[in-house]
User: Fold these one by one.
Assistant:
Number 1:
Amino acid sequence: MRANEFNEKANAKVNELCRKVEAMPWENIHFYNSWLAQTNAFVGHTSTFLHMCYEGLPTDHPLKSRFHEHIEEEDGHEKMSQNDLKFQKVQDAEIFQVTGAFWKAQYYWIRDVSPVSHLGYALLLEGLAAKSGPVFLKRVKAAGFKGSTFLKVHAEEDTDHFPEALEAVGKLTDKDRDDIYANLCESMDLYLKIVGECSVSALQKAA
């Protein structure tokens, strides 16, 4: 698909995701702790994904340097979620099967489709952080939860990642954008199942 069409469709999907995730019970400590545990589980693979993408692209690819920059930007982010879990005193939290499916799918997209197809997953998460991260952070802080560094960084300091990623996608081919959008849609379905399980788990623990 053409760049303008992609931008329109990708923004619509991210906006839909934001509406649905904002409707989740962020003030519920069980929900937040579960969300944090799932996030920590897949964030730990981010550097590996980016290295795979970088190494899988030819030297003259227009996004080669972008992936290299992103590797440096994301370095150590998993430590933030790990520390937040410690502040929340969360140990041995259940990691849902769908959470594993969420990150494991990226190995398929990168290896068997193309390295740039991974941008669908990245765009989804960067868009959610940029558009709804401030809302999540405000609600978590109002609830008095201490471990929120991961949210704070992504809601306040990394908001430029989403528009930068959209700009990068504009440099690619129509076929690339088709693959990226397909990954974005699949990733969105899985992410919604993750937060849905977080909500169900929270209700069960509160009962």
Number 2:
Amino acid sequence: MKVEIDKRLCCGAGTCVLAAPAVFDQDDGDGTVILLQSAPGAEHRAAVEEAAARCPTAAITCL
């Protein structure tokens, strides 16, 4: 799995961090998403897909 983020779309809601804290974090300055793992292992697949589905601005893409 490959994960991409579009920081321009991110509104800082933090739902991604709640769903997959091993893969996503938030910038302390503006709250936007920080991608910790661009190619997370299979054990993170469900959490990353949930994070992408819950993102209010569709800033996360799973490939």
Number 3:
Amino acid sequence: MKKYILIALVIGLAHSTASAQMSVFKIDWNVGVPMGDMKDFIENESYRGIRIGGRAWIYDELSVGGEAGWQVFNGKWRGTQNVNGNIDASGTQFRYMNIYPVMANIHYYLGEDGGMRPYLGTNAGVTFINTRTEFGLWAVSETSTHFSVAPEIGAFIPVGVAGAGLNIGARYDVAFKTSKLDMNVQSFSFFLGFIFLN
């Protein structure tokens, strides 16, 4: 069900930019690296990430937009660990974290139309996080909603086909702790994707 909600949000975000004088639709593949508190829960990097969104220029150097994404982290842990506040689990645990950010953004660009456009920007919104710990026949799962921010740096690089190009860059995502998940979920990610200009 979450996948269908995510797809509907992405289509809405992309459609909302279509009426602007110039807009872009983008799809990125992300490689995420856990940082901070999150690294204590899962230390493995994730190659399973995607973000889809749109941006509309309000000035030549400034755009606003939105995006939604999905990043999956997983790892194996051995030992005794308190799970969900009231269960001590011993043995091998398999840990999963599915992260679904839905954010608005603003970006500032260098360069000129038709050429490479380096940019700095920030994203802010909500992130839905599902954590799951499996041990033996048992599993504990929890879903929480977090306020989140993600500063980023990147560049749009035009390629041979008119109106198309590459999007490359890096960003730092922080989903702030809540009463349901008492950790700041932080990750550093590199992304590579495609852009389509209108």
